[in-house]
Each structure stands twice: as C-alpha cells, then as structure tokens.
Amino acid sequence: MAFLGATLNTVGLIFLTHAVYSTHEHTATFPHAPLPLDITIELLVSILVLSAGIVLTSPSLKPIEWARWSGKLQREGRHGEGKWTREGEEILSEGDPYAFLGLDGGIGGKGEGRMGFWDVRGKRKEYAEWARSGGKN
User: Fold this and answer.
1) Residue 2 carries which DSSP code?
2) CA angle (108 as vertex; 107, 111 as ends), nearest 5
C-alpha cells in the first residue's frame, strides 16, 4: 500500500502542478476569458488522486477512546518506532503523552485524578463530615 500511495501522491502532484501552470498561462494570455473545462477537470482529478494517495500513506488511526489508547501506551512504555537518527540511534516513543495529567489516581484511585481539577463530590463529602463533627478537624 505504501508504494501505491507514494505513486498516487507523485502522479497527483504532477497533475496538480501542470493544472496550476496551465491556469497561470491561460490567465496571463487571456485575462478575461473563463478557464477551459480541461484545466478544471485536470485540477479536480489531481486533487482526488492526491487525496487517495494521502489516505493510503497515512499511519493507522488511534482509538477514539483516549483511556484505552493511553492505557495501551502506559502498559507498553518506551519502545522503538522503527525510525533512526542520522547518527544511527533509534528514536524511542516517550510512552504515555497524558502522564502529566495524573489520571492514574482518578476514578477508582486514591487521588483527585487530574491535577488542576477539583473533585466536587469528594469535597462535598468532606464538608458534610466536617459539619457533622461540629466544625472540628
């Protein structure tokens, strides 16, 4: 699929370049005449071919449920991506990109979950216990 996508991208880019050049030549030669139909069709075909090539060469999509995706990243930890630097070192994934949020202490955990967010229900429960005890710590 990668070869087919790269081929479609190349062909689409060539068609797009030719359509843009033809449009420039036409408007420079005949400034007030409408654009010919063949240039318009070439432009639309090039966009469709380029779009198909981009879709075929794009990486796999991440799941919409971020908790599942983040959990998978957290379980796997740092791993190689199959990419290398010029110096010959493998580029490693950083693992969970949402680790800074502190979500592991959230639902079912002991902490408030997300740093910077306030657990309203927990604070209401604490206040109710404080009020029942007569305002003493």
Assistant:
1) H
2) 75
Query: For residue 40, which of 9, 13, 7, 15 has the smallest C-alpha distance?
Result: 15
Whether the full predicted model's pTM is greater than 0.85, yes or no, is no
Structure-token pair, residue 101: 């949020």
How far is it, in rounded angstroms, from Cα 100 to Cα 110? 17
Find where tokens 């071919």 sit: 49
Domain boundaries, the chain: 2-57, 66-100, 102-132
Three-state DSSP at 99 gives: helix
pLDDT by residue for the chain (137 residues), tens only, comes to: 789 999 999 999 999 999 999 999 999 999 999 999 999 999 999 999 999 999 999 988 766 776 776 677 667 665 666 677 777 776 665 555 555 555 555 444 555 455 556 667 888 888 999 898 887 76
Q: Indicate left, alpha or beta for 82 from its phi (over 0: left) and psi (-120 to 50: alpha).
A: left
